[in-house]
Structure formats: C-alpha cells, structure tokens
Write a structure and sequence with these properties.
The protein has 13 helices and 12 strands. With 335 residues, the chain is α/β, with parallel strands linked by helices. Strands 2-6-1-7-10 form a 5-stranded parallel β-sheet, sandwiched between helices. A 3-stranded antiparallel β-sheet has the order 3-4-5, with no helix packed on it. The protein has a two-stranded antiparallel sheet with strand order 8-9. The two termini are 26 Å apart.
C-alpha cells in the first residue's frame, strides 16, 4: 500500500515538473505589453478600446502572477504526446478563435461557415468527452489533435481551455480573439446560461480553468488576463482581435477580409460578402443596443466589487471554520 502511494506521489511530482510554468509562456514584461495593446487600441466606432483601460493596472499584473502560481502549468504536447501529437493537416490553414463564449463567437462561426470553412462552435456536431469523440453509434478514441483537425475553424468551449495545446500542435494556425467588456461579459454569460448553472462555471485562464466560480470577484480580471495572455502567445501578424460590441459588424468584417488576404491569400469582395454574412448570420447592432450596456470600473463598480470580495471572504472563512474543504479561497486551499 505504502509503495503504491509512493509511486502515485512521485508520478504526480514528475507530471508537475514536466509542465511548463505560465510565466515561461509569457513573462511579466511581455504580458504588460500585450495587456497595454488590448486596453489602448482604439477604433472609430463608439470610441472604446478592445478592453477597458482600467484593466491596465498593477492589480491585474499581480493577479496574473497569482494565477501562474495556482496553475498546474501548461502541458507538454507535440511529437512525443499521444493525446496532442503535431497536426498532419495539409488542407486550408487552421483558424482558432480563442475567445470565451458570449463574445459573439456564434456569429463569427456562422460567418466563417459562409466563407466555406468547416466550422466547429462549442464542440461541433458531436460532443467532446476529453479527447474522445461521441456520436450516435457510440464512443471511439481519437487524439485531441485529430479531433480538432476535422474542422477548419474552431471556437467556444472547450477551445479556450485547450488553447495552449491547440496553438502548440498547430504552429501555422491563425488566431482570432473575440473580446468584450469583462464586466458586461460576466453579466451576460451568467444571465444567458443561468438555467445551466453558469454562475458556478469555471472560466478559462492561462493553460486551463479557473479554480473560482464566475460569480466570484476575480472573474472580470481573469477574463482580461486570459485575453492578454492569448495575445501574448501569438505572433501579431497572425492574430486578429475584435470587439463586436464596440465596433460595427461591417467594420469588423472589413478588417477580417484584409486579415484573411494577408494570412491566407483569400480575396473577398467586401460589400457582397458582408451582405451574404449578415443575411445568413444576422446583424448584431440591434442586439447590442438592446442588451448591452457600458460597464466601466467606476467608483460605484469598485465599491460593489470590494463588497463582493468581503462577502466571498466571509463565506470562505466560515466554511473553513465549520470544517468544509474550500479549494483556492484567495489563492490557497483552506480547511
């Protein structure tokens, strides 16, 4: 028995040692530069940035450091991995939309479908169970790389959680990153999927899932961190970042056509293609006007966030006091 426990322990240690630390994928200086690009890039639309400028702060930087300590690291993938071998795709380039769900990923998946890409949104036709594919005839094994290679364009869960592995196994991929105001994103994410218990979902963070539920106080900051980390990993020439809640659909699509021409040599007639996409996928402007609102980190928002943090801390401490095990309350395991 003791021998078995020892073997399990050393296996766990070796797995931890073989993982890549988040800070080794994107160090603090590069992370700051990436965060600055997302919070300072302006467009001619409503005059907003990709992410609110208030997230370019020491608080976000410290949180990124904390996440790197909490994370078990990014798994090693590639030629030596059975789960994530290198891709063998030889057809059209692979497109990864690394954005979280509820950032208009469904619209962009529809747009790429109209452009002739075989698109997967939230797992595609068949469900993912780890790295197995499931269909009406049963379950069969397939590597994660092979499963995703069935498509040309992939987006939404579980893509953000597997982004590191997808990018490492597809070095020639181009990456889209759909973003929106982090406070607005959390509100809409929980509201839209309330019946599915979204308040307790774990959002994507660098190399995995957050240990905190989305209703926790760190969710907006962690959303900004994840997006800045993605932008840090990808060559800027192969990255297309957009915010369909700050830019008009037509402006975003026009920028997208230029990006596809540069990265994939695809020539599109902008006006005709935009009309086709909007006819098939809808126009987001009316939805944005009806359902979106401008969340900025005003004093009132900061006060509300502080009160939420205090209440969360009280709950965590109380649960620890009565003997419940609470994982990662304020960055560490409490009993």
């Amino acid at each position: 028995m003791y021998m078995s426990l020892a073997i399990i322990y050393f296996m766990a240690i070796s797995m931890k040692d073989s993982a890549i630390n988040v800070l080794d994928t994107c160090d603090i200086n590069k992370f700051k530069q990436s965060l600055a690009r997302l919070t300072q890039t302006r467009f001619s639309g409503p005059g907003a940035t990709l992410l609110p400028e208030s997230f370019f702060s020491s608080k976000t930087i410290e949180r990124y450091k904390n996440i790197s300590e909490l994370s078990s690291g990014c798994q090693t993938v590639g030629h030596a991995s059975e789960t994530w071998p290198m891709t063998k795709r030889y057809k059209k380039p692979f497109v990864i939309n690394a954005g979280e769900g509820t950032t208009a990923t469904r619209f962009m998946a529809c747009a790429f479908r109209q452009l002739g890409y075989l698109s997967s949104h939230a797992g595609g036709k068949h469900a993912f169970r780890g790295c197995k594919r499931v269909n009406e005839t049963g379950e069969y094994n397939i590597s994660c790389t092979e499963a995703w290679d069935l498509y040309d364009y992939v987006s939404d869960s579980p893509v953000p959680y597997q982004f590191w592995s997808l990018l490492e196994t597809h070095p020639d991929a181009v990456v889209l990153l759909s973003v929106r105001n982090p406070y607005q994103w959390r509100y809409k994410r929980i509201k839209t999927h309330q019946q599915k218990g979204a308040a307790n979902w774990r959002q994507a963070i660098p190399c995995g899932a957050s240990p905190y539920p989305m209703k926790g106080p760190w969710a907006p900051t962690d959303f900004a961190i994840y997006n800045a980390w993605v932008a840090c990993l990808v060559n800027p020439k192969r990255l297309f970042v957009y915010n369909l809640f700050n830019e008009s659909t037509q402006v975003v699509l026009t920028r997208l056509y230029k990006f596809l021409r540069k990265t994939q040599g695809i020539l599109l007639k902008a006006e005709k293609t935009t009309t086709m996409i909007q006819t098939a996928c809808g126009e987001l402007s009316s939805e944005r006007k009806a359902n979106s609102f401008n969340f900025e980190e005003t004093p009132a928002i900061r006060l509300l966030e502080s009160l939420t943090f205090i209440l969360f801390g009280f709950w965590c401490g109380r649960s620890a006091f009565i003997g419940k095990k609470i994982t990662y309350c304020f960055g560490r395991t409490r009993r």
